Amino acid sequence: MLIRKPAVIRPSAITPRETYFNRRELLRAAMLAGGAAFGGPALSAALPDGKRARLDDIKSSRFSTDEELNSYTDVTTYNNYYEFGTSKSDPFRNAQDFEARPWTIRVSGHAEKTGVFDLEDFIRPYDLEERIYRLRCVERWSMVIPWVGVSLAEIVKRHQPLSNAKYVRFETLLDPKQMPGQRYRTLDWPYVEGLTIAEATHPLAILAVGVYGEVLPNQNGAPIRLVVPWKYGFKGIKGIVSMEFTEKRPIGSWERAAPNEYGFYANVNPNVDHPRWSQARERRIGASGGTGFQSLLGASMQDTLMFNGYGEQVAHLYDGLDLRRNF
Ligand code: MTE
After folding, report:
1. How much distance in Å is there from the Cα of 236 to the middle of ligand 1?
2. How far is the CA of 142 from the centre of ligand 1 (A)?
3. Which atom of ligand 1 is nearest to the CA of 191?
4. Is there a contact between 269 and 323 (Cβ–Cβ < 8 Å)?
5. Domain coordinates of the chain in residue numbers?
6. How far is the CA of 19 from the centre of ligand 1 (A)?
7. What is the per-residue pLDDT across 52-110, written as a single tens digit (0 to 9) for each?
8. To 5 degrees, how large is the angle CA 169–CA 123–CA 163?
């Protein structure tokens, strides 16, 4: 696959890495000075609106990787979001005018607390955490992204699923007026994804509302998207408007489109090939040698890790499952 860079990158879209790190250190110092120790009381500040608005009171997470971050430009201009087109630069180009507010999320199905919630009520009281996770796409590329999000487990628990709730099914907004890709039947719209309850209540799973200390850009799934770091990126559904507790296993959009290629489990697994290519290695986007001639020589390729490196934490979720069949 060719790694294409968009022709136009606004200068304002580029945060130099040093600036970002300085800001993070300042924020951390301010939090400590103000007594907002990690693990303190939940925060209730409003979630800011507006492009590139800063998120405050972000806690750091022990789950973060210390690998080198991809740049803000990599993260926000090389995307998959078929609602805005099928090429990697389409979401950045076509999602700029998308209106991510006001936003509501419908919670339905087998749970005590169902209803339609305003975004802020849905994630409140929230502890915003920065989680630096790899995103490993099934297309054999990866990035390291400083997400900002809330624990999905906490949200799921707050809605009190009933004993017959075995899965959580998510849906993206359906709005062909705003999402030009939905005018074509590239996928069966709206985009759907699902997790088992055990996956959804694992502490590594988050609903992200930001990246690089700022609100989520539209192309990354504003205002709220799923991030499940041990799974292939396609499980990370964007622009979520519905969360349903189901007894039956949901069928995600990719599984519906090509069931032999995209399984429900979709754990990052170097030992199970995609029907059309090996998953043993991956290309780190933006890594030295990641573009141009060097990349053709494989300089930015690296071994893919089982469960994307989170085996110790998540392997038990799949005890007894044949991961070759449940791919
Ligand atoms: N969510 C929706 N609604 N539509 C999509 O096309 N693409 C998925 C996932 N979530 C997709 C989606 C795929 S294939 C990947 S790899 C990730 O989003 C990419 O996330 P990123 O663009 O923020 O890196």
Report:
1. 6
2. 13
3. 3
4. yes
5. 11-317
6. 27
7. 999 999 999 999 999 999 999 999 999 999 999 999 999 999 999 999 999 999 999 99
8. 45
C-alpha 225 to ligand 1 mean position (Å):
9
CA atoms within 13 A on the CB side of 132: 15
Tell me the pLDDT tens digit for each residue of 192-226.
Answer: 999 999 999 999 999 999 999 999 999 999 999 99
CATH superfamily membership of 11-317 = Oxidoreductase, molybdopterin-binding domain (3.90.420.10)
For 72-113, where are the E strands, in sequence order? 104-109
Here the tokens at position 43 are 């925060």
Q: What pTM value is reported for the model?
A: 0.87
Residues lining ligand 1, CB < 6 A?
79-83, 135, 137, 172, 191, 220-221, 233-234, 236-239
* Six-digit token string for 274: 């995609």
User: What backbone torsions phi and psi does residue 138 show, to the nearest 5 degrees?
Assistant: -65, -20
Which residue CA neighbors atom 12 of ligand 1 most closely?
237
**CB–CB of 221/208 below 8 Å?**
yes
- How, if at all, do strands 240-246 and 129-136 pair? unpaired
Residue nearest to atom 24 of ligand 1 (CA): 79
